[in-house]
Write a structure and sequence with these properties.
single chain, mainly alpha
């Protein structure tokens, strides 16, 4: 099953994102304004607990 990825660390270089992407970037603003947590519920039954996606 898809775990809540907000707590996952994808890369040890994730801090570079804050250095490279400007604070006023449109995608950063969208991410701050919209709660995308509904996606987890929508995709929950598309993932297998043991093997990732079906």
């Amino acid at each position: 099953m898809l775990q809540n990825q907000q707590s996952m660390v994808f890369s040890p270089y994730i801090d570079i994102y804050d250095l490279v992407v400007p604070k006023d970037n449109l995608l950063r603003k969208i991410n701050d304004l919209i709660d995308f947590s509904f996606v987890y519920n929508e995709l929950k039954d598309k993932y297998c607990k043991d093997n990732g996606r079906y």
